[in-house]
């Protein structure tokens, strides 16, 4: 079966979106001041859905290719891994990331022990850089992505070792701003898909060995691993429980990606997902239980959103002992829109912590570290995609 190229699949949607966006902007110019806000929101949603569909199309094409030539892909990956010899790839970031160095500051010369059979992690009572509280003691700087998938974020644009070196350099940019900085990998562990798959959940799950590779590298950085959940038609709690052996470690955190949480009749790509406070509370209760039972340092639970409707009944989200619940503002685009969205969705009452995501490709004139720290309130978590 011939699989259409990603470009062939993306182009028709791009043309329709461009036409719709042009009509939206024309409507804005012809309206008086008061109604323009609603129209601008619609235009913004058009752009957001355009990016949303591009990601799903690429993901679907990638999954089709995997089904058709699964054995060939695994063979090629094995040969590439042997040929690369752990040296990484030449893939970079179009906007010019900080230069790679062979051994970043703060990286241990040898990998830490893996989860299986490790007594070190079990006995640890402190965070990788000391203490038992992440927020507000530290500021966390993370790279986001899916392993081996460059268009899903910077984390997948090279080996864990290569991206770890880049992360160490990027995180160092935030050291002048008061708090000590903790680097982190945000790895997509459960990824939403446009097809139901064998389980019918419209999602795929990361194998344990891949998770261990990223955890080992995070430990060499004296940093954290954040497991990101895109549940599709599944739910956050059962997906989180699949990774319990990792969540029981003192340096593994959890993220709920509400954009990809679908209803029973919804398909990733046809709609933007959402989550309610009850589901967040169920996950936070489970995670806080692990912290208490294992006597772990504080963990943080990240909830991703870029619009208010993506988190229902937000005011009823419960605080939990041992958890730093963090609402992460994910919108991309121009500076004014990003600042406006951050102001609207960030917590200003001190109940929860705040995060912001920066996009190397989609952001227009991406904020510098100093400009990020000029936001009010200053974010506790800064993620790059």
Lay out the secondary structure:
Blueprint: H1 6-30, H2 36-68, H3 70-84, H4 119-123, E1 139-145, H5 160-172, E2 181-192, E3 203-205, H6 208-220, E4 224-229, H7 236-241, H8 244-247, E5 252-257, E6 275-276, H9 277-294, E7 299-305, E8 311-312, E9 323-329, H10 335-345, E10 353-358, H11 369-372, E11 381-384
Helix pairs in contact: 1-2
Descriptive notes:
The protein is of the alpha/beta class. It has two domains: 6-76; 98-384, TIM Barrel, CATH 3.20.20. It has helices at 6-30, 36-68, 70-84, 119-123, 160-172, 208-220, 236-241, 244-247, 277-294, 335-345, 369-372; strands at 139-145, 181-192, 203-205, 224-229, 252-257, 275-276, 299-305, 311-312, 323-329, 353-358, 381-384. The strands form two sheets. Strands 1-2-4-5-7-9-10-11 form an eight-stranded parallel barrel, surrounded by four helices. The protein has a two-stranded parallel sheet with strand order 6-8. The longest helix has 33 residues, at 36-68. It is globular. The two termini are 33 Å apart. The model is unreliable at 1-54 and 60-122 (pLDDT under 50).
Could you tell me the mean pLDDT?
78
> What distance lies between the first and last C-alpha atoms, to the nearest angstrom?
33 Å
Morphology call = globular
Give the percentage of residues in beta strands. Answer: 15-25%
Query: What level of helicity do the residues show?
Result: 25-40%
Lateral arrangement of strands in the main beta sheet: 1-2-4-5-7-9-10-11
CATH domain class name of the largest domain: Alpha Beta
Task: Write down the Rg.
Answer: 21 Å
Order of helices and strands, N to C? HHHHEHEEHEHHEEHEEEHEHE
């Amino acid at each position: 079966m011939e699989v259409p190229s990603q470009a062939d699949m993306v182009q028709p949607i791009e043309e329709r979106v461009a036409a719709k966006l042009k009509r939206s902007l024309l409507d804005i110019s012809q309206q008086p001041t008061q109604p323009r806000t609603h129209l601008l929101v619609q235009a913004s949603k058009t752009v957001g859905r355009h990016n949303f569909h591009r990601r799903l199309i690429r993901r679907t094409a990638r999954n089709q290719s995997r089904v058709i030539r699964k054995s060939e892909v695994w063979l090629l990956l094995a040969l590439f891994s042997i040929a690369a010899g752990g040296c990484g790839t030449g893939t970079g970031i179009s906007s010019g990331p900080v230069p790679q160095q062979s051994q970043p500051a703060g990286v241990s010369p040898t990998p830490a022990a893996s989860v299986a059979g490790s007594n070190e992690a079990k006995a640890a009572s402190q965070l990788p850089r000391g203490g038992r509280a992440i927020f507000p003691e530290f500021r966390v700087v993370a790279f986001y992505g899916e392993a081996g998938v460059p268009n899903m974020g910077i984390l997948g644009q090279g080996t864990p070792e290569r991206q770890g070196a880049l992360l160490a350099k990027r995180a160092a940019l935030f050291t002048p701003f008061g708090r000590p900085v903790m680097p982190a990998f945000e790895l997509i562990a459960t990824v939403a898909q446009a097809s139901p798959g064998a389980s019918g959940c419209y999602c795929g799950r990361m194998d344990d060995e891949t998770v261990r590779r990223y955890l080992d590298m995070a430990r060499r950085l004296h940093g954290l691993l954040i497991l990101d959940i895109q549940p599709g038609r599944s739910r956050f709690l059962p997906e989180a429980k699949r990774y319990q052996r990792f969540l029981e470690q003192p340096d593994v955190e959890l993220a709920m990606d509400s954009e990809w949480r679908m209803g029973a009749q919804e398909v990733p790509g046809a709609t933007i997902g959402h989550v309610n406070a009850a589901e967040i509370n169920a996950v936070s209760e489970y995670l806080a239980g692990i912290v208490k039972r294992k006597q772990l340092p504080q963990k943080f639970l990240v909830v991703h959103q870029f619009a208010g409707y993506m988190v229902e009944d937000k005011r009823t989200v419960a605080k939990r002992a041992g958890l730093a619940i963090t609402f992460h503002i994910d919108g991309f685009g121009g500076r004014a829109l990003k600042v406006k969205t951050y102001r609207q969705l960030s917590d200003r009452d001190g109940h929860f912590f705040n995060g912001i995501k920066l996009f190397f490709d989609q952001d227009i004139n991406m904020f510098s570290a100093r400009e990020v720290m000029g936001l009010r309130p200053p974010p506790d978590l800064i993620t790059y995609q």
